[in-house]
Write a structure and sequence with these properties.
It is built from 4 helices and 10 strands. It has one domain: 3-Layer(aba) Sandwich (Hypothetical Protein Mth938, Chain: A). The chain is of the alpha/beta class. The chain has a 5-stranded mixed sheet with strand order 5-4-10-7-9, sandwiched between helices. It has a 3-stranded antiparallel sheet with strand order 1-2-3.
């Protein structure tokens, strides 16, 4: 997948974007077109008081028409989960969601091809 993820450490993720490496010190969302933006954690935090449960509002923000898969990096300690509403939302749209600890999610992302979205939680 583009961009490729080069490495991660607690609180940081480094991507290879167009021949250059770029480090992010926050959760990121990688869109279908390969563009990278900061995760909108507040969409979940205002509902659940934590960004470790993905809300329906955040799921709606993450989703893009045409997406077939969503890789969610759940953090080093595997904390991030989908709310029931978010899981149902992705299921209705035919999106296969894979929740994996961040290191495994990075390996999976780099192996995949096709219409895939990535959401990467880089801390706990």
């Amino acid at each position: 997948m583009e961009p490729q993820i080069v490495k991660t450490r607690f609180g940081q993720i480094t991507l290879q974007e167009g021949g250059e490496k770029r480090a992010y010190e926050h959760d990121i969302l990688i869109r279908l077109d390969g563009s990278v933006c900061k995760r909108k954690k507040k969409l979940s935090k205002q509902v659940y008081g934590t960004s470790h449960t993905l809300s329906l509002a955040e799921a709606e923000h993450v989703y893009e028409p045409g997406a077939e898969k969503l890789v969610i990096a759940t953090g080093v300690f595997d904390r991030v989960r989908l709310s029931d509403e978010a899981a149902a939302y992705f299921q209705r749209r035919g999106v296969e969601v894979q929740l994996l600890k961040t290191p495994k999610a990075i390996r999976k992302w780099n192996e995949l091809s096709g219409p895939v979205i990535g959401l990467f939680h880089v801390s706990c």
